Amino acid sequence: MLDLLLRNARAENRSLSLLRSLCDDVGPRFPCTAGDVAAVAWAKEAMREAGLSNVRAEKAPATLWERGVESCMLRLPRLQPTVLSALGGSVGTPEQGLEAPVVMFTSLAELDAAPAELVSGRIVYLHHVMPRLRDGTGYNGGSVVRMSGPSRAAKKGAIACLVRSIGTDSMRAPHTGALFYEPDSPMIPAAALSTPDGDLLARALLAGKEVVSTLKLGCKPLPVGESANVIGELVGSERPEEVVLIGAHLDSWDLGTGALDDGAGCAIAIQVGRLLAALPQRPRRTVRIALFANEELGTGGGLAYASAYAKDAATHIAAFEADQGDGAPWALRLPAGNRESPLGVRLYQALAPLGLELDAGTSRGGVDIAPLRQLGVPFVDLRQDATRYFDFHHTANDLFENVSPEDLARVTEAFALTAHVIANAEERFIPATL
Amino acid sequence: MLDLLLRNARAENRSLSLLRSLCDDVGPRFPCTAGDVAAVAWAKEAMREAGLSNVRAEKAPATLWERGVESCMLRLPRLQPTVLSALGGSVGTPEQGLEAPVVMFTSLAELDAAPAELVSGRIVYLHHVMPRLRDGTGYNGGSVVRMSGPSRAAKKGAIACLVRSIGTDSMRAPHTGALFYEPDSPMIPAAALSTPDGDLLARALLAGKEVVSTLKLGCKPLPVGESANVIGELVGSERPEEVVLIGAHLDSWDLGTGALDDGAGCAIAIQVGRLLAALPQRPRRTVRIALFANEELGTGGGLAYASAYAKDAATHIAAFEADQGDGAPWALRLPAGNRESPLGVRLYQALAPLGLELDAGTSRGGVDIAPLRQLGVPFVDLRQDATRYFDFHHTANDLFENVSPEDLARVTEAFALTAHVIANAEERFIPATL
Question: In whole angstroms, what is the distance from residue A283 CA to residue A239 CA?
């Protein structure tokens, strides 16, 4: 049956056509915009067309935020207009903008250690250079700078915060992303400079120049709104109450069309549903596809799902998530204690022919399914090659044109095999012994 | 002596530091802007510092043009804001913008063959996909579309013209570039869409959708102004009146910092002067470095040089130009009849150890030195690898960060050897027999 599944998967790259449709016909789908509404309708239709049942949209809270104008001129002393994006959730500047000298730090620790008089009244620039790593873990350290930097700069009296984009490209394409305002700090405007603009600024400051920047951001947080998780199922033939959950997120940032983040995941998940539905025998357990709302700015969708389904946690046999774009799969990571369990072994045997390694670590899940961890749901990680992912992630270049059809096909195969094996196995994962 | 020259060239990559200084300290240098003025001062200083003599700025006419606001929203029917750049020299739209259905053609021939009623009152979109080729010749066909498309669309009654960017990338980074208004056509506003925006539009139109676009361009041509060619020399020790000319252009488009086009060429040319000046013996002939003004929008600098030095054409032993960015050199192309001439053989023997092939074709020169052809000046082409060049050319990503230090060093070496051989050879190139 796995052979037939693979053969069908390879006959036609429908993940790609699904993704093109999402990017072209829906486009950007920031929570509570017209694109978000269109995306929910698109997902329901795509799931029905794929042969899924119980297709529904389930309400989820969503953060509202508006971007508005964005400009930042550096006086190096020569004038250099830069390309930047406000961080998601940021407050704006006064309408006429603001102007101040820039002070640079290369880490949060360096900022924390600085005397307040060095920072007070200035614009803080955080020059953190994200490394390009296959497993994408360079993002972990980077996103902390973006999330926490603005409040930590504000604590020292900064009037605004710029970060070097958390990304690995060298394009004039800033990487947006959420920030987190700490409750005890003033909320100051914050934005990401494109990486080459950040590097230019760093070179000037390292050369000892006094750099003054003007900054105008028209963004503003708005009251909380509402979006929806879109869910569809292939009801199990023998144990319909037992669920194998495949997650992805339907929302995207506003700058690109969310092709890699996370249109690819949505396309993969729906296509896995279609491939399983097309087999002569339905899986024994229920396979549930959940496309979560508002991952990017508050993870409202994942939290709403965990809250609504907490009572069914014990019947969630496994959960896994596609939220690393089109990256080819390179490793399987299992729940603790399962590398030699019958289901762990069976799953790895199915995936090894696709070239996956067995990872020595413990599965962690993605952001949307993370709230299910404390409910005891076992996660499976299909680790995807993230070498190129952070060239595009959260930028205007997160577009269909920057997707690799071959890699998208390969990761779809791995997700399909994973879902099929877990949904049909006699065994379950061995629970973690805490 | 060639060995010493190469050793010195490899001791320190000063082309790179020159280029960084031009990009960081001067930045964009569109003709008749403050950046242009700063570039002229920078070039004079850099030439003097490199040990050149007779450093001077010679007046050259320059085209004035202002960019202004730029926006284009596609109704696919869903709304998609696009990223675009007005073409250099374009007139603007009315201040409130314009709005019309879009009609697509995939070539100028297809546009020329179309009935006027299909085009009249519409926005023409020219979907020409430039191929990625090592020798960069994909640009030839592409630039014709950009230069001539607007007037040819206007002849059929189009109210504006969009072209798919003449470039090989897939980024939201439109490629600007000059257009040419034919005298007998109405002047209509014209702009380049980023390649992925163009592809999105093409997919919608090919799917049979009616696409309406709004377009707002604030650009405007202005009266002709003035800039300057910057010239410096290493005066020949034996035949000072005989000149080996190395050209590059000092101006750049406004969007990036002109690192590849043509900051790289300026850095290479100045560094070649420095390397020759540092040798124990000065070249026998004069080596003249000319950084031309306003190549991008009218080639005013090259024309002014040819006009001013027409009387000295016979003493221009050879001219060559660096205007293909940081591309590593892969072939030598000689004046007709010189592949087996003593100087041709001597020059190729010097360059072969750098991995250069001997090209079977005839040298053509670059845009700036082209007017010297009809005066009988022999050209030498050092063909550079253009595989990546058109990912950045004329875009906001034409930045120092996108330069390869290794390739820049290699092309500097090839230019230095070429200048040294020609300036010291007993022979001259054999004149073309017409």
Answer: 9
Buried b or exposed e, range B311-324, using 16+ CB within 10 angstroms? eeeeebbbbbbbbb
Q: Read off the pTM.
A: 0.95
What stretches in chain A show pLDDT beneath 50?
none
Between A38, A256, A399, which is nearest B78 by CB? A38
d(CA A229, CA B257): 45
Numbers of helices and strands, H then E, in chain A:
12, 16
- Number of alpha carbons in the 13 Å side-chain half-sphere of residue A287: 30
Domain boundaries defined on chain A: 2-63+223-424, 68-218
Averaged pLDDT for residues B346-369: 97
For B272, the 3-state DSSP assignment is helix
Give the pLDDT of residue A63: 85
Task: Give the three-state DSSP class for B191.
Answer: strand
Q: Where are the alpha helices (DSSP H) in A83-171?
A: 108-113, 116-119, 138-155
Q: Which helix (H) or strand (E) holds A291?
A: strand A285-292
State yes or no: pLDDT of B434 exceeds 60. no
CB contact under 8 A, B24 and A256: no
CATH of segment(s) A2-63+223-424: 3.40.630.10
The answer, yes or no, to whether ipTM is higher than 0.90 is: yes
CATH of domain A68-218: 3.50.30.30
Q: Touching check for B75 and chain A: CB below 8 Å? A: no
Strands B70-75 and B98-105, bridge-based pairing? unpaired
The answer, for A129 touching chain B at a CB cutoff of 8 Å, is no
Residues of B in contact with A172 (CB under 8 A): 173, 256, 395-397, 399
- Pick one of 3.40.190.10, 3.40.630.10, 3.20.20.70, 3.40.50.300 as the CATH number of B2-65+223-424: 3.40.630.10
Residue B319 to residue A51: CA distance in whole angstroms? 69
Measured CA to CA, the distance from residue B400 to residue B23 in angstroms comes to 6
d(CA A228, CA A291): 9
Q: Closest Cα of chain B to A81: distance in Å? A: 10
- What is the H or E stretch that residue B392 is in? helix B389-392
Single-letter residue type at A399 = L
> Cα separation of A405 and A268, whole Å?
12
Q: Do A171 and B170 touch (CB under 8 A)?
A: no
Residues of B in contact with A395 (CB under 8 A): 172
* DSSP letter, residue A371: G
